[in-house]
């Protein structure tokens, strides 16, 4: 994926059972580290696995997929949640596949 210009991020560098186990200060610290990495590697896309991390860094937004925002010059993509329907997941991932290079 890196060779395709896609950067994955976990923002907080420790395991957590879910988003409620992550303190806001940890996310803010992770944001600074992430911005430095984005500047260094300049990926086309930043893919967030968890929406909470994306909303903490970027503010609230509806849905998932490409959210019409960027971070460090990279388009932001938010993965569908674990309870999304298979149809929604497929549609969302198709937008990632069709993203221009």
What's the layout of helices and strands?
Elements lengths: L5 E4 L14 H18 L3 E4 L2 H8 L6 E7 L2 E5 L7 H12 L4
- Indicate the CATH class: Alpha Beta
Tell the overall outline: globular
Rg calculated over all Cα atoms: 13 Å
CATH fold-level assignment: Uracil-DNA Glycosylase, subunit E
Helix-strand sequence: EHEHEEH
Beta strand %:
15-25%
The termini sit apart by 12 Å
How does CATH name the architecture?
A: 3-Layer(aba) Sandwich
Largest sheet data: 4 strands, mixed
- For the record, the count of structural domains works out to 1
Strand order of the largest sheet: 1-2-4-3
Q: From the helix content, strand content and strand pairing, which structural class follows?
A: alpha/beta
